């Protein structure tokens, strides 16, 4: 059985060591636990979820510090992640009642009832950028619906997954209802091919497309894909008094979490000739951004990207932009050759042909200058992805034009592209998702509806079409 380890990206220190998990054993445990959990009372499942919420809140500081150590994200940011893990419980309970609860009525004098059933054993594949919050967004709704779960976290963040599983165990979740199986890509492929009833995925478009192909021959299994984005942010008709705020929104959109959010702005679209004052403010902010380790004082705005391999890939991607003709406004600089700290980068790609429609999952923003609004919309939609989009400036009528024309599941106005409400659906189209949005709508894919017409006793006659 192969062994692997996770390390602190800021220091290289080993944080976790262990062996790849046994997929068959984990799925078998989930299958064995399913009947008892699926037939338990919803109130009992809710009670366990609330106990988990209380334990996460009580252990919040240790939880946040572990996430910071394993991902390199600043402590201020990982504290918000832990808060989101706890808040997800209340949101999921409400969503379960609203979107997957029991409904009854009457049609033509006959009782009509809608109920929901769990799928069974669900696999969850989690990412490294939000190693607790994002898989938790699948796990809580799945458990509330009565499913059992096999969770494979990113091989880069196994310690966070173990911590979260321990919180569930302390909350009284029965053995076998949630099973952690550690491992890399091979383990994930084995899990996707195992005796499961569905898979809930958060990660790259490349892996999501491979899962879609793998599931093509088994339409009876649910597959929910939450993938990345090549997200546009349009700046238009901006008043001079709003330039500073717009610059702050751009920086937040592009560089939060060192650009490692699927909703980060990747492409900045501005009116040619009106861009210089705005860019002056954006570059001034970039030059002030503190890049550092999670526990530094003062706190950094950005930590490192997750690993040296990720940093190498981002540098190669930025080099490709320059080789094809992009003009460097701020280079993607590696602060330390041995560690994955990157300084925020900005490239003007106006007029550059053959740009890859790819998600550079890091602190890289590409600027495109356009002549008019139609060209801005065309540039925004020139992608196979469709996760988030935004407008800064303009008025309500202009925003309505963006909303109507855009191809994205999250569309914001005068807010960062990576701002999303947990009590709303979250997801995209194209290479960003398969029309199964998560967050509040996770209740939809965690259970399946059963419609019934019911009567307390049989009552029927045939009045037409019978011979004497």
Automatic annotation (TrEMBL):
Signal peptide: none annotated. SUPFAM superfamilies: ALDH-like. The keyword Oxidoreductase applies. Coiled coil: none annotated. Keywords: Arginine metabolism, NAD, Oxidoreductase. Its EC number is 1.2.1.71. It is an enzyme of class 1 (oxidoreductase). Residues 3-443 form the Aldehyde dehydrogenase domain. GO terms for molecular function: succinylglutamate-semialdehyde dehydrogenase activity. The keyword Lipid metabolism does not apply. It holds the Pfam family Aldedh. The active site is at residue 226. InterPro entries: Ald_DH/histidinol_DH (IPR016161), Ald_DH_C (IPR016163), Ald_DH_CS_CYS (IPR016160), Ald_DH_CS_GLU (IPR029510), Ald_DH_N (IPR016162), Aldehyde_DH_dom (IPR015590), SuccinylGlu_semiald_DH_AstD (IPR017649). GO terms for biological process: L-arginine catabolic process. Belongs to the aldehyde dehydrogenase family. NCBIfam families: arg_catab_astD (TIGR03240), PRK09457.1 (NF006992). This is Succinylglutamate-semialdehyde dehydrogenase. The lineage of its organism: Bacteria, Pseudomonadati, Pseudomonadota, Alphaproteobacteria, Sphingomonadales. The gene is astD.
């Amino acid at each position: 059985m192969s062994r692997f380890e996770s390390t602190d990206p800021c220091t290289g220190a080993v944080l976790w060591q262990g062996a790849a998990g046994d997929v068959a054993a984990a799925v078998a445990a989930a299958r064995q636990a399913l009947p008892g959990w699926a037939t338990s009372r919803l109130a009992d499942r809710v009670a366990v979820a609330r106990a988990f919420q209380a334990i996460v809140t009580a252990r919040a500081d240790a939880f946040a510090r572990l996430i910071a150590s394993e991902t390199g994200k600043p402590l201020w940011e990982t504290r918000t992640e832990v808060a989101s893990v706890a808040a997800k419980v209340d949101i999921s309970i409400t969503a379960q009642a609203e979107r997957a609860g029991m409904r009854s009525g009457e049609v033509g004098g006959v009782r009509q009832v809608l109920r929901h059933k769990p799928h069974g054993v669900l696999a969850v594949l989690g990412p490294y950028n939000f190693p607790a919050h994002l898989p938790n967004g699948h796990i809580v709704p799945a458990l509330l619906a009565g499913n059992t779960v096999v969770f494979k976290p990113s091989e880069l963040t196994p310690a966070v997954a173990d911590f979260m599983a321990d919180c569930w165990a302390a909350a009284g979740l029965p053995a076998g209802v949630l099973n952690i199986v550690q491992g890399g890509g091979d383990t994930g492929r084995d899990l996707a091919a195992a005796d499961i009833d569905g898979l809930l995925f958060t990660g790259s478009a490349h892996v999501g497309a491979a899962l879609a192909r793998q599931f093509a021959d088994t339409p009876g299994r649910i597959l929910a894909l939450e993938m990345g984005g090549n997200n546009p942010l349009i700046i238009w008709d901006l008043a001079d008094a709003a330039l500073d705020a717009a610059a702050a929104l751009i920086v937040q959109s592009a560089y939060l979490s060192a650009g490692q959010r699927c909703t980060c702005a990747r492409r900045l679209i501005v009116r040619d000739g009106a861009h210089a004052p705005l860019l002056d403010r954006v570059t001034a902010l970039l030059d002030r951004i503190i890049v550092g380790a999670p526990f530094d004082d003062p706190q950094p705005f950005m930590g490192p990207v997750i690993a040296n391999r990720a940093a190498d890939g981002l540098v190669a991607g930025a080099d490709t932009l320059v080789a094809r003709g992009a003009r460097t406004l701020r280079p993607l600089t590696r602060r330390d050759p041995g560690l994955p700290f990157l300084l925020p980068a900005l490239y003007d790609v106006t007029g550059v042909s053959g740009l890859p429609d790819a998600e550079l999952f890091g602190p890289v923003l590409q600027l495109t200058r356009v002549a008019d609004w139609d060209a801005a919309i065309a540039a925004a939609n020139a992608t196979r992805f469709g996760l988030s989009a935004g407008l800064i400036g303009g008025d309500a009528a202009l925003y309505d034009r963006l909303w109507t024309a855009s191809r994205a599941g999250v569309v914001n106005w005068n807010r960062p592209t990576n701002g999303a409400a947990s009590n709303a659906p979250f997801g995209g189209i194209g290479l960003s998702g398969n029309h199964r949005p998560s967050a509040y709508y996770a209740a939809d894919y965690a259970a399946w509806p059963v419609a019934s017409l019911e009567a307390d006793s049989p009552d029927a006659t045939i009045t037409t079409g019978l011979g004497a």
